[in-house]
Amino acid sequence: MNLYIQNHKFHYELENLTRLFYPNEKINVINDAVEFIEPYIITSLDSGLSVEVNISGFNKKLNSGLFDDEENERMLCEMLYKLLVEKTGVTPPWGMITGVRPVKLYRSLKNQYGVEYADNRFREKLFVSEKKLELTKTTEAIEKKIIDISNDKSCSLYIAIPFCPTRCKYCSFVQMSIERCKHLVEPYVELLRREIEETAAIVKKLNLRLETVYMGGGTPTSLSAEQLDRILKTVNDSFDMESCKEFTVEAGRPDTITEAKLISLKENKVDRISINPQTLNDEVLAEIGRKHTAGQTIDAYKLARNIGFNCINMDLIAGLPSDTFSSFKDTLDRVTDLNPECITVHTLSMKRSSTLTQDGTQINKDGAVLAADMLDYAGKRLFMSDYLPYYLYRQTRMVGNLENTGWSKKGMESLYNIFVMDETHTILGCGAGAVTKLKDPYSGYLKRIFNFKYPYEYINCYEEQLHRKDEICSFYEFCLKNRPIR
Q1: Which of 157, 165, 234, 432 could form a disulfide with 458 if both were Cys (CB 3.0 to 4.6 A apart)?
Q2: How far apart are CA 112 and CA 114, in angstroms?
Q3: Are 115 and 140 in contact (CB under 8 A)?
């Protein structure tokens, strides 16, 4: 697919919009061409705006007058959107929205212009379906109460454990099999503990307030109970935990959960865990490369309850290969009957580096319809069971251009998930692949500091990585110096 950009700079959004309709195709973005090779899309800004689509016998063009830059971009997208809806017969439920954070966009519009304007913008300018608009509004109202907890001194801590027992076929995260890289695990743990201590010293120096801690991966419970214990003790010993409102650890793979590990989490003040089945269909589990059974998930959940965990999240994925509506419904019903405090319903995302994509699995219209039906059922069932949507985000190449939604019982929402999705305050990242995202409390400007991705890089380049953390203090000093006078 050739996407021609003529005399404008809006290639990024137009490329993402094209990908909504052609998720499996390579899209070649070409600037200021003089000849056009089919199949093609031509987007042009000259004396007016124009979009022409010439794909598989469909050839149509739309024209418009000129506006300011922001509206020129939106109008080019609107014309392309309308032509691709007509060509493909597909109407994306999120309309022209291609971004990760539709709730944040809605909140920004609402705060600036009011609810009526925000609603109309979503409906009439972005073509968001009524169903997704209502989901956005419900989620935004719940998020707002939690966002208001944060202040200018707030921050959160993310700790990355990039090891897993095996790699799931849908996964694209940087992670390594615990069996293949045993020699890296112990040095990684010790250097991670040191990075946590250094980060805590920076928090203390800047007089920041730690709101939440989240240990993710990978699978943190791939580590031994003793290794987990050391890392968690380092967090509790290094930070002032008096202000910390939640401490979460992903125990995502049931086959990594043991009584000793759960006891270590509990003794180290971890109050939220995730036990993630993705599906309770053993055949689908095998298909996606999960080396555990549905029965092991249930056993791990019951063990966590017996040890005293009273806030458990369970992740499910709609649209998994070989899954059916009946199978997904059975999974959701059984998980809901377990009555965890939170259930997160993801939509399969076909990441380019995942095994599924590498093996040639593609997104098709039937799969998109099936995933949408799964999410519709999940929403109805969870509402009936007293769960409410509390955070929401989207990814590229999602089946059906759908979304991931976190559902929770009232008052049991994950604060960290909301803070991350809203970009409410600074998130300090420790570990391989972690990203520190600094937020200027006065202007809202965001700056990212990246850790090395792979465990061997993290270990070999550790001192260089620590030097990057010097940027944290420099960033806050700059923000303070340039803060607006009130």
Answers
A1: 432
A2: 6
A3: no
Q: Which two tokens mark 477?
A: 């000093």
* Cα–Cα distance measured from residue 14 to residue 187, given in angstroms and rounded to the nearest whole number: 45
What mean pLDDT value characterizes the chain?
94
Backbone angles phi, psi at 334, to 5 degrees: -70, -40
Q: Spell out the residues 6+ positions from residue 407 whose beta carbon is closer than 8 angstroms to its own.
A: 342, 343, 344, 345, 382, 387, 388, 389, 390
At position 366, the amino acid (one-letter code) is D
* Beta strands 272-274 and 246-250, pairing class: parallel
Instruction: For residue 278, give both structure tokens.
Output: 């993705």
Q: Residue 319 — φ and ψ, nearest 5°?
A: 95, 15
Of 405, 177, 184, residue with least CA distance to 289: 177
pLDDT, tens digit (0-9, with 9 covering 90-100), for 309-361: 999 999 999 999 999 999 999 999 999 999 999 999 999 987 665 566 666 66
Angle CA 382–384–387, to nearest 5: 45
CA nearest neighbour of 398 among 357, 435, 355, 433: 357
Residue 153 near residue 209, CB atoms below 8 Å: yes
Q: What is the pTM of this model?
A: 0.94
Q: Which of 324, 319, 325 is nearest to 365 (CA)?
A: 319
Using 50, 70 and 90 to split pLDDT, how confident is the model at 167?
A: low
Which pair of tokens denotes residue 154?
Answer: 């707030």
